[in-house]
Amino acid sequence: MTVDMSGSPIALTIAIDGPAGSGKSTAARLIAERLDYVYLNSGSMYRAITLLSVQSGVEPSNQIALIELAQNCQIEFVDNGQITLLDGIDVSTQIRTPVIDSQVAAVAKVPGVRKEMVRQQRRIASSGGVVAEGRDTTTVVLPNADLKFYITASVNVRANRRFNELQGKGINCSISQIVQEITDRDLADKSRLNSPLKIDQEAIVIDTSDLTIGEVVSTVLKKTDHFSTN
Ligand code: C5P
Q: Structure pTM?
C-alpha cells in the first residue's frame, strides 16, 4: 500500500494501455493485488458485449442493436477482476475464445458502445485506488491518471504467450493463426477513428519482450514510490 507522510493510504489512479498479449493484464492484476487496489480490465467489458452480440445474433455492423445491448446489460467484476459476470452469469472463459478474439475489435470501434463502456469504467475508477488497463485508459478514460504506462512486446512474443494460454485451456490453434489474429487486431485497434490505441505523451513505455512478469510489476511499483513519502 502506498502511504503518505502520516501513514494514510494514497489512492492512486494507475492507467495501463497496450496491445494484445503484452502482459498488461497479468501485470495490472498483480499490481492491484500488491497495492490492494481495484483492478479494472476494460477489455473484458468489450469482450462481454461481443459475447452478447454473438449469442443474440447481432452483427457488428448493426450499431443501434449493439448500443442497446451495451446499455441494457450488467457487467460486474468479482474476485478482483478475475471473474467477469454478464447479467449475473460467469462468462470469464467464454469471453476469451478465438471467436471473441476475432470479433471484439469490430464491436469495440462502435462509438455508442465505447461511450457506454467509458461511462461505466469512469464510475468504477471514480474513487481512485485503481489499476485500469485496456487500449484507451491513458488517453480517454482516465486522462488525469497519476501514473500512465504503455506495455508492449514484439508480435512473436505476444503470439507465443497467447498460444500457450489457449493450449493451457485445451483450445486448438496454430501459432500462425494467432500471429495473424494479433496483427489484425493491432491494426484495427490502432487505426480506428474513435479512441485508437496509441502511446499517451505522459506514458512510461515498458517493452516486456525480455522481461519476466515480476520485473514488469516491480518497474511499475517503483514508480508508485514517488508518491510515497516514507
Ligand atoms: O485487452 P483485451 O485484449 O482483452 O481487449 C480486447 C479488445 O477490446 C481489444 O482488442 C480492443 O479491440 C478492445 N478494447 C478497447 N478498448 C479498451 C480495451 C479493449 O477497444 N480500453
A: 0.94
